[in-house]
């Protein structure tokens, strides 16, 4: 028996435990604030904001929330991200830490602006 993959942000978030739900709903809300015209979809199995192209993804993991703005964004915000675990294209924020809301929003806006330039 295979479990059907979530088709919406709501389905994705509601499948998580309470701690993860709290972080995911916060993430969704703060990204909607700065990307009000972006559409939502599940891409690569993760909630994704997009406008013609993907802007930013996020996902729940066992010990952290992952944010996926792409490798170039990680490079641009390297100084601001020093206290977080990062890899090429990914930021990991442990559940015991508060979400760095302003930083996430700055990264999302940067991604939006730069994705538009890629046309």
Query: What is the element string, with H for helices and E for strands?
Result: HHEEEEHEEH
- In terms of structural class, how would the helical and strand content be classed? alpha+beta
Shape from CA axes? globular
How many beta-strand segments?
Answer: 6
Number of helices: 4
| Unreliable parts | none
Radius of gyration: 14 Å
* Amount of helix: 25-40%
**Number of domain units:** 1
Could you give a short account of the major beta sheet? 6 strands, antiparallel
CATH class: Alpha Beta
| Major sheet: arrangement of strands | 1-2-3-4-6-5
CATH fold topology: Aspartate Aminotransferase, domain 1
Strand content: 25-35%
Q: Alpha-carbon distance between the termini?
A: 41 Å
CATH architecture annotation? Alpha-Beta Complex
Q: What is the arithmetic mean of pLDDT?
A: 94
Structure description:
With 119 residues, the chain is of the alpha+beta class. The chain contains four helices and six strands; from the N terminus they run ααββββαββα. It has one domain: Aspartate Aminotransferase, domain 1. The protein has a six-stranded antiparallel β-sheet. The protein is globular and about 40 Å long. The termini are far apart. The model has no long low-confidence stretch (mean pLDDT 94). It holds the Pfam family DUF1801. InterPro entries: YdhG-like (IPR014922).
